[in-house]
Amino acid sequence: MEATALSSGLRPLPNPNGYRLSRSCSQRKSLPLARFHSKETPFKKPQGLSFKTKVFEQAHHPVAGDLSYDDTTRSSVGEDKIGVLLLNLGGPETLNDVQPFLYNLFADPDIIRLPRPFQFLQGAIAKFISVVRAPKSKEGYAAIGGGSPLRKITDEQADAIRLALQAKNVSADVYVGMRYWFPFTEEAVQQIKKDKITRLVVLPLYPQYSISTTGSSVRVLQDLFRKDPYLARVPVAIIESWYQRRGYVNSMADLIQKELQTFSDPKEVMVFFSAHGVPVSYVENSGDPYQKQMEECIDLIMEELKSRGVQNNHILAYQSRVGPVQWLKPYTDEVLVDLGKNGVKSLLAVPVSFVSEHIETLEEIDMEYRELALESGIENWGRVPALGLTPSFITDLADAVIESLPSAEAMVSPSAGVSEDSESSDAFGYIMKMFFGSVLAFLLLLSPKMFHAFRNHLI
Ligand SMILES: C=CC1=C(C)c2cc3[nH]c(cc4nc(cc5[nH]c(cc1n2)c(C)c5CCC(=O)O)C(CCC(=O)O)=C4C)c(C)c3C=C
Ligand SMILES: [Fe+2]
Question: CDD domains this protein is in (predicted)?
C-alpha cells in the first residue's frame, strides 16, 4: 500500500445540515483489499478451513443450508472475534429526515459525479438538489407510512444472519452500516472497534455491484479503516457481489414460481424484472459492471425457472431515474405502456436490485407502475415480494460469510504512513476550494434560470 493512497487529503465535507458525513472519492487509488466475488462453483464441503490460510478456495454448494463448520474449523474460529458488517443505503425514518437524507445522497461523489475541477461544488449542488427534490420525495414517503422501512428490515436481516451463522457453529456479531442515514457506516465501524473484532466480513446488501451503491459504501469504509491504526490491521473480506449464488437464484425463483400461481392462467404471465437504474455514463465511461451483472442475474433466474418447467416470457427494464441525464434503458414506465399496447394482459413485477421492501417497491412499483400498467391495458397485475427474511436466502448469505472468512486481509500494510507535508498542502487546497466553492454556489443558488432548469428535470 503506497503512502500516497493514505495521504490523499481526507477532509470532512462541507455539511450545512450538520449530519455526519465522510468523503469518498472514486478517483482515489484503491487500497489492496480482500475482494471476494461470490461465484458459483461445484459443491465442495470445506474441511477444516483455517483463517491462517491466505489463499481461499471458494466452496459453494447447490442447496442452501448444507454448509457447516466441522470441529477442527470451530477451534480456529475460536481464535478470532468475528464481525459481519452489512452495508446498505439507509432511508429517512420521518418526513423531516427526507431533505437531509437527500442531501447526504447527492453529496456523495459516487452519486453526483462532477469533473475534478468542479468537485468543490458538491456540497452546494447537493443542498440545492435536495431542497428542490424534497417535496416530491416526501409525497412518496408519506404514501408508504411516513418513512422508509429500511432500517427495521435491515436490523431484522442482521439478526437472522447472526442466528443462521450460529446454527452453522460460527459465532459472530452482525452490524448494520448505512450510507446515507442512521445508523451510519461510521457508527457501525466505531462499534466494531469497541467490540474488538479481529476478523471482519463486509456484506453489502446489493446482489449486483454498482459504483453508486456497493462501490460508494466500500470507499467510505476504506477511508475509515486506513485512518485508524487498529482497524487498518483487522483482516477484512469484502463480498462485492453475490447475484450468482445458487441460494440467491433459487430463492428468487421460488418467490416468482409461487407468485405466478396466484394468476388464473400462470403460463400467460409476463415476468417483468424491474431493476433500479444507473446513469448510462457509469457503465459506458466508468466501467460499472452493474448492467452486465443484472443481465446475468436475470438469465440465471430464468434458467432456474426453466429447469423447473416454468417457461414464461420475461423482460428486464430499469426504474427510478433521477435528473436530466440518460439512464439505463429500457425504462420501466415506457415498457409497461408498450406491453399494454401490444396486448399483454397479465404481468408479474419482480424487483431485482434490492433485497428489502423500500420506497421504490412500495410506492413506485405498487402504486405508480401498477396504475400505469392498468391504464395501459394490462388487466392482471402481481408483484413478487422482496427477499427480506426468506430462510433459504438468509442461510445462503450466512454461507457466503463463512466462505469468505479465510480470504480476509488487512486493508493497510504496517509500513504505510501519512506525510505531514501533504497534510498541510491539502489543508491549503481545502481552504481555497471552500472559498471559491462558496462564491460559485452563491451565484448558482441566486440564478432563477438554474433553479428552474433543475426543477424541471428533477421533479
Ligand atoms: C441497487 C440499488 C440502487 C442503485 C443502483 C441506486 C442508484 C441511484 N439512486 C439514486 C437516487 C436516489 N435513490 C433513492 C432511494 C433509493 N435508492 C435505492 C437503491 C439504489 N439506488 C434504494 C433502496 C432507495 C430507497 C431507500 C428508502 O428510503 O426506502 C432516492 C430517494 C428516494 C427518491 O427521492 O426517489 C434517490 C434520490 C441515484 C442518483 C443513483 C445512481 C447514480
Ligand atoms: Fe437510488
Answer: Ferrochelatase_C (cd00419), Ferrochelatase_N (cd03411)
